[in-house]
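User: Show me an example of a complex going from sequences to structure tokens.

Assistant: Sure. Here are the input components:
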Amino acid sequence: MISFYFGRLMEIFPFFLKGLWMTSKIAFISLVTCTLIGFILGIFRSSDSTILKRLVGVYVAFVRGTPFVVQIFIVFFILPEWGIQLEAFTAALLAMAIMGSAFICEIVAGGINSIPKGQWEAATSSGLNGIQKLRLVIIPQAMKVILPPLVGQYVLLIKDTSVVSVIGIMELTRVGWVTVVRIPEGLMVFTLVGFLYFIISYPLILLSNYLEKRMAA
Amino acid sequence: MIEFKNVNKWFDKLHVLNDINLKIPKGEVLVICGPSGSGKSTLIRCINRLEKIQQGQIIVNDIPVHDKSTNLTKLRAEIGFVFQQFHLYPHMTVLQNVMLAPVNVKKLAKAKAEKIALEKLEQVGLTEKSAAYPAQLSGGQQQRVAIARGLVMSPEIMLFDEPTSALDPEMIGEVLDVMVNLVSEGMTMCVVTHEMGFAKKVADRVLFMDEGKIVEIGNPTDFFDNPQTDRAAEFISKILTH
């Protein structure tokens, strides 16, 4: 019996690999964009400008205070009402970028704020401009604080890509759904789905643990 | 060289600088003292605009420091600043700390910046520590590196904010020696300190502040032997007998 289902599973395994590929693609692109936007927002959030700080604060509060699945629906179903038509794939990436950058923003701002004021003052006194201060003095030191939770956030973001299945993207979780309709062995199907997520997440979990130990030293 | 004209500054309701008028000519060594919270650190921090002022003007080399149009980079290159807590960059070696501004602000070539940085490290007696990280140095050594970092842009003015207050007693001497050498080179210096030996030895004038006001200013002999106000007399007796 089991071997029969297992045989069926092997038959459709290429289908799973396609889903894994889609998941990896969404994850990779969103991690890069979330990191870029997250750093810029984090720098704004930790800046002296009250306006920038508040604006980013509102953005972060909104994103953190609403479920990701609702955010996806807003991007995919509500933006078109205002004339912004997006393909499911683009909508998924946009929703991931909005959500992930807000969390990374908080991590980055926390790291920057952990650097003592004296470092800013020393760099200011030397005549460095704002960008130089961040690039040469503040960010290199803040990375120690930023890196472990950042990698941890990457793991969460990779897992959150499963939510974009709700708008019909054929990524790993969606492949699981579709397969379960054809093979009644749901446990086996979703064990496989879970295992494939685990394969991409676990190295990052190890990396995060390692960084945490190293950066603490 | 440095001029304060009717300068006023408040931290919320606290009047930290109260109508300051002061002229510091080129080459002068001015020691600033006073009880904590009297505004002495704030006074020198306004000179390179680490702090903003709300009223009045500060002019350094004919440049109005607190004007919006002032090129702060150029101004700050002419003013070295040494902090109580050193504030060396912990992720950089001693040499990288000293080279940072010449390479990035003056845009000097690395080799040239390194040569100047090594000269300044020699001046503070720390050439052999150039590859070390700040955490590997004693407090006195860190402060000497900080002085080298201030000197590397060839400033005309050096500001010291309690440069020896965070040091163990046996390290104070090495830092003061470096500063005395600077005096002999004719550097214009404003030094917030309670090292009265240093003040007597090298200061041209001593400025005594209390509650944001300049209470007394004069040459060190007059100030220490014959203070004009009760407040200064009381302060002197406290720091000399502690």
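The lines above are the inputs; the final block is the predicted structure for all two components together. Chain A is about 80% helix and 0% strand.
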